[in-house]
């Protein structure tokens, strides 16, 4: 998926950085130890004695070393002592016995937090706990978070530099910062507290997690994606994963500053969003597909009616005329499920101008392609795949999952007639996220779908800190296949200027 290609040939071209083979050591080079062990040569041989065969040269054996172990995740802040958690447990129990929760629920969050802090201060004074001022402030914040928020997760949710929060049972909490995983000193009182916080999160969106329904997808109020899997399926305690959303919504201009795309490439993407191209954003898990989809939707006209379909509502569109739809799982009786396909079908009866599917995972891809091909130009969706060519193959396989008995050529003709552009996002091995391909779906030659790359990301090497170095370059396509569409919207001059600037930069 990396590197420059003209027409995508379907090979997943992951760059291979192969070190040059070390030169073979000269034959005379023998370790000193081996020389020391060699038998001494006699001073002279009597003429009558037969000549003995020469001793074979000592064999030098190369030590075979095991591959290095994977580096442990970086350590975060120090862990708190057991005495701290014992004190917190005693104060928390006393607080629950003292406070009137029904009256507390009537207060706004700030007033409730102040009320709790006052009561906790009184409890600490009465029980005469020996604590420093810093420890007392930590304890106050922790207990307020336990009662009013998400407990130990609150300080992590408040940080905007964290991309993922991974809780593996009550004792192990990991975070991802700048593409790298770190361990934290945060822990939960026990597995029951962790499960209670998970239930508090999922209940806000009308879902539940317990032994009878141990798997649940949900979201936080800010749109962060949440997955919970509880015992008995999670053996070592409840596993909670949160994919955080930044409070400040990213734009294409910010992606340019981060190096995810070049300024000229960003201009091409803006034009693609503006001229109502049907776009599929392809990429692996954590590659930034949803972020990129949010960025592209910024260039949709404000007077268009947009309908979004998602498993958990994550998209943060800025337009005023947006209808957000969300799937629903089965209830305890196994009924009431509303699938993504049901939502996409219903969209067609809601007079949409653009349909945006947060993530295409199954047969709903056929309904999305039908919508793209029946007057809903500018529709968008994301698909898990590792290259533009693989994205096309996945769409074929997902249509087959729906039970459609269509000839292969017919399925490919539907895809070619519906999809205009595939944008490939990737998360590189140094943790950075890059847009590696902007690829057009051109047409068919026989039974083969023809694509052409407009922009590709070439990796040139890495710096002394291990960060990959590369650049976005034009493949020399002067007039993309959507040129006439750009002319229809009056954007052909901007498109030509961006492509020409990218080509000069590559030269």
Automatic annotation (TrEMBL):
Biased amino acid composition, Low complexity: 16-43
Name the record gives this protein: CpaF family protein
Which CDD domains does the annotation name?
Answer: VirB11-like_ATPase
Q: Which domain of life is it from?
A: Bacteria
Q: Cite the Bacterial type II secretion system protein E domain residue spans from the record.
A: 150-423
Q: Where is the composition biased (Basic and acidic residues)?
A: 1-11, 72-84
Q: Which family does it belong to?
A: Belongs to the GSP E family.
Q: In what ranges is there compositional bias, type Pro residues?
A: 44-59
Q: Which Pfam families match?
A: T2SSE (PF00437)
Spans annotated as Disordered: 1-84
Q: Which InterPro entries match?
A: P-loop_NTPase, T2SS/T4SS_dom, T4SS_GSP_E_ATPase
């Amino acid at each position: 998926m990396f590197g420059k290609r003209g027409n995508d040939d379907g090979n997943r071209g992951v760059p291979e950085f192969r070190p040059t083979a070390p030169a073979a050591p000269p034959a005379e080079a023998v370790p000193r130890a081996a020389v020391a062990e060699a038998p001494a040569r006699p001073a002279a041989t009597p003429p009558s004695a037969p000549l003995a065969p020469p001793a074979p040269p000592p064999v030098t054996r190369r030590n075979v070393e095991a591959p290095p172990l994977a580096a442990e995740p970086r350590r975060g802040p120090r862990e708190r002592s057991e005495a701290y958690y014992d004190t917190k447990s005693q104060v928390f129990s006393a607080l629950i016995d003292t406070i009137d929760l029904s009256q507390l629920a009537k207060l706004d969050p700030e007033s409730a937090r102040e009320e709790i802090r006052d009561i906790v201060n009184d409890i600490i004074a009465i029980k005469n706990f020996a604590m420093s001022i810093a420890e007392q402030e930590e304890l106050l914040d922790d207990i307020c978070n336990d009662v009013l928020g998400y407990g130990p997760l609150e300080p992590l949710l408040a940080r905007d530099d964290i991309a993922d929060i991974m809780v593996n049972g009550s004792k192990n909490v990991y975070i991802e910062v700048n593409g790298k995983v770190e361990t934290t000193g945060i822990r939960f009182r026990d597995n029951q507290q962790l499960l209670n916080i998970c239930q508090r999160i999922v209940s806000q969106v009308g879902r539940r997690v317990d032994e009878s329904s141990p798997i649940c997808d949900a979201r936080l109020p800010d749109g962060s994606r949440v997955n919970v899997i509880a015992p008995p399926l999670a053996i070592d305690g409840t596993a909670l994963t949160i994919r955080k959303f930044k409070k400040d919504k990213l734009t294409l201009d910010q992606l340019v500053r981060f190096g995810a795309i070049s300024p000229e490439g960003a201009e091409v993407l803006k034009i693609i969003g503006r001229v109502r191209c049907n776009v599929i954003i392809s990429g692996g898990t954590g590659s930034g597909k949803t972020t990129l989809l949010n960025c592209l939707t910024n260039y949709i006209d404000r007077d268009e009616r947009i309908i979004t379909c998602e498993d958990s509502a994550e998209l943060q569109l800025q337009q005023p005329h947006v209808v957000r739809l969300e799937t629903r799982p089965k209830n305890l009786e196994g009924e009431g499920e509303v699938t993504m396909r049901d939502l996409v079908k219903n969209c067609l009866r809601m007079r949409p101008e653009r349909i945006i599917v947060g993530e295409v995972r199954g047969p709903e891809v056929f309904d999305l392609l039908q919508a793209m091909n029946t007057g809903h130009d500018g529709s968008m969706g994301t698909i898990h795949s590792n290259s533009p060519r693989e994205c096309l193959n996945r769409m074929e396989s997902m249509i087959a999952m729906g039970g459609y008995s269509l000839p292969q050529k017919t399925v490919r003709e539907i895809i070619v007639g519906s999809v205009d552009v595939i944008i490939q996002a990737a998360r590189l091995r140094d943790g950075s996220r890059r847009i590696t391909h902007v690829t057009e779906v051109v047409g068919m030659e026989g039974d083969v779908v023809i694509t052409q790359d407009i922009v590709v990301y070439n990796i040139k090497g890495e710096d002394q800190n291990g960060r990959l170095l590369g650049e976005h370059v034009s493949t020399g396509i002067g007039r993309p296949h959507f040129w006439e569409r750009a002319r229809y919207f009056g954007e052909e001059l901007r498109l030509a200027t961006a492509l020409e600037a990218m080509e000069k930069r590559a030269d």
